[in-house]
Amino acid sequence: MTISDDIVKTRKRHGCRLCGGRIEIGERVVRRSGFDSDGPWTIHMHLECEPLTKGWDSMDWETISPGEFKRPQNAEAHCERTGWGMSGNKPHPMMGISPN
User: What global pTM score does this model have?
Assistant: First the structure.
């Protein structure tokens, strides 16, 4: 069960749960947290990778491996196309939350 979806600026390095790519310190990412039968969990995803999960259910999450998806090549163009400004205050199109 997902408890929260937040857009945060990272304080340490992480790996993207979808593309497996490095998330650098200070990068803005989607942080999703919740709990399941194994206890609490937190994952991090690039802003441009997260829309790939639209419509996913728990089985989709259980059957993917980090690196299974390729990060979009031009993150800035992708974010502009989806209405998500890399440094703006537009709400994220998938979650309806602001990046602050």
Answer: 0.67
CB 72 within 8 Å of CB 55: no
Q: Which residues pair with 35 in a beta bridge?
A: 40
Q: Are 28 and 47 in contact (CB under 8 A)?
A: yes
Closest CA to 3 of 37, 38, 30, 40: 40
Domain 2-81 has CATH 3.30.1740: yes
pLDDT per residue as tens digits for the range 1-12? 778 889 999 999
Residue 16 and residue 46 in contact, taking contact as beta carbons nearer than 8 Å = yes
Domain ranges of the chain: 2-81
DSSP string covering 34-74:
EEETTEEEEEEEETTTGGGGTT--HHHHHT--TTSSPPPS-
